[in-house]
Amino acid sequence: MDRKRLKFLVLGCGIVATMGGLLIVGMSRPGGVAYYLSVSEFVAQPERASAGFRINGKVGTGSIVRAASGQDVSFVVTDGSSALPVRYHGVVPDTFVDDADVVVEGRLGGDGTFDAHTLLAKCPSKYEAALEEGQPMPDHSDLVPGATN
Amino acid sequence: MLRDLTNAIGHWALFLGLLGAAWSVVAALLGARVRGKGLQLSAERAVLATWGLLGLATACLVAGFLADDFRLDYVYHYSSTSQPLPYKIGALWGGQAGSLLLWVLLLSGMACVMVLTNRRKNRALMPWATAVVGATITFFLVLLNFIEPPFLTSAARPDGVGLNPQLKNYWMMIHPPCLYLGYVAFTIPFAFGIAALVTRRTGDIWFRTTRRWTVFAWFFLGTGVLLGAYWAYIELGWGGYWAWDPVENASLMPWLTGTAFLHSVMIQERKGMLKVWNALLVILTFSLSIFGTFLTRSGIISSVHSFATSDIGPAFGVFLALVFFGSLVLLVSRLDNLRSEHRLESVLSRESSFLFNNLILVGMAATVLFLTTFPMLSELATGSKVTMGPPIFNLVNIPWALLLLALVGVGPLIAWRKASRENLLRSFVLPGLVGAWILLLLGILDARAYLASAGALLSALGRLDVSAGFQEFKTFYPAITFALGGFVLATVAIEFWRGARVRVSNYEESALVALGRLVWRNKRRYGGYIVHVGVVLVFFGVAASGAYQIEAVRELAPGEPLIVDDYLLRYDGYRLLAEDDYFGAVATLSVYDSATGKPIGTLEAEQRYHPNLMFPELRETFQHVKALGETGSPQYAEGVAGLYRLVTLLERQAGREVKTPSTEVGIHSSLSPLAASRFGEDVYVIPLAIDPATGRANLRVFVNPMVNFLWLGGLVFVLGAHLAVLPDARERRRLDAAIALEERSVAVA
Questions:
Q1: Most-buried pick from B184, B243, B252, B700 (CB within 10 A)?
Q2: A71–B661: do the CB atoms touch at under 8 Å?
Q3: How far apart are alpha carbons A120 and A96 in whole angstroms?
Q4: pTM of the predicted model, to two decimals?
């Protein structure tokens, strides 16, 4: 192999190798990598307090408690068989509603509540039926002036 | 019933379309084997007929939306009676089946253009190209007929669910079709590439013929990516625009390899080199386009953007594997025909600068692919899913993007074969000085921060802690970006200046006329330079808004001020409203210069709630309050406040939320050149909460410096790409000459 080709080979391999090197550096750094689990898998995980986790599930219907600040929210994430209380501080996405698919990323706090630093939510595509059939409809015309029923 | 009829017509048009597409493949393949002109003609007519049938099917589905035919499941899920007309039409691509339908309609439309523009050209390539495009159409029609049919009906329903509120946005309406145009149009260059490999006509005809297709696809994909970023910026309300989400990555990857392809074909045109590489790039780009559609649509990697999940995953996997591995096998079997005509002579040459640009672009696409699919890979390997966060993407990609930026300046000016000393001096001394001055200036302006980081960087390197070193190196990224950007802009300016000067002296034209004619006569080249300018502006926007963003969160009562950076914001007041299908509160803010107190502008931020209208009393009260607003009743505001109370009460009773929030951020962009220090800067206000009774508002405020350079750069990119895609007499002559040469050599052989 002549010197010119060698030069190109070295440069090309250099680019590829540094890219790989950067990847390894990035992946070995704490914070970027997270284990991705369902709620049940997380609850069954023995070392769940040790590392960063990314957990997916659904928002437990009726569990959302929104603080007046608008950027603190607590709720329960569930996958049907297990449930996990979650605390989150930050911009709450508009898609975060009852029964929405969510992904929370963070770590388990000392009180057993999951402290999330990231909250991703995907809107459920349907509203469920509002009330059970046959239930009497409550009257709330007092709340709105001039409402007639 | 008319509606039954149109649904049936749509259903059967899709099925006949499948038959038509399948026939176009069979006839084209038979035509290629036995050289039957009649069969090839039949295949091309089948392509045209398929397009007509798909157009009919799409029209039937749109008719379903316009007529509010909620028996159609698809219409029920993505539309409702209260949905405004543009969103009823846009809801066509709000879900899975409609997106696939739009995809395949666009593809068959492009197939028609391909057939019609090549009636008298490329007759040896056309049967194979028709077969490849036809097979892709057939695949999508199989999905639409058997796995994801859009014309499923159920019992009649009074109203539909409606489109996801976040998708009800002007940009969101044009963003998906734009991306689809990009994804789809890459099919044509791919089809010609495959045709060239099969027929062993591996000269430069296949990509010269499809050059404008490639630019078209690449342009729409790039625009689609930027529109998606813009939508995220103004709609998702977290103050940013890019989060390395799988779906974002899916659209970025084929754009990166497509960019590499656009550049590397120039080397094959000029020097007959990189033939294997070019074929590989077009295969990669098309495969990544299919993979992108697959990732977006299958939900295999969880993403906030994948608005649909379904059973099309396995089918896509099979198709993708066939496309990718089939093409690779074909490529390997044709290696003999793809021998390079020249060798690389010097590292300092245009060939090698393009080669390195390609290596970086493909390397970035590969890293993004690796990191995006890592959850899947790690699950296969170890059984546990591991995800990669945005910091890793940034860590790996930013250094390479900066090197790429440098090559944007070097590539167009460095000499072919081997750059001489004179060439290097003549081309790069001045731009190099511009870059160096910018670096020096920025270094002096922010000397303390840079010195501190440099010290920390050295000590980290001393400890051999590469990771910490990179953390410190981040401080320098913006300065490096601006210096390299200045370097690139200077090279482009020099190119324009030199070209125009030659015209001025040769043709005695005025400077402006010379500049105009220079660009018009070399649209491909100068269009490319203009795109480079756009890319530099995008780099500026990303670097400054990423590094120098300022954030504040504060609860304000009406009338209270807030100082952020060099802005003074006053919360003027709020008003309550109920419109369309939402109620909410609008906060009005005035923006002043904090030093001089001069008014700069006003902005409005809005907190909306879409009530769940399935609750009868909520629906009735909402309609009532809305009517109060329409008649201008003084009780309107009190009525909206009542809606808030009703929602709270209902939520307590039902034990769940009965509203869907949607936040409209308030943005004030400084675009006046008079305020140069703020040019391109945004004040970005997210209303976290607005109390309907007192008006106390919790606001999150960002100052995003230079973020508008991103969108301005996008506009410049659009301009340049338009120029490059216009018909160009010079390119046409080159293509004709190449075709004539090829025909002669085939005749001799």
A1: B184
A2: no
A3: 8
A4: 0.90
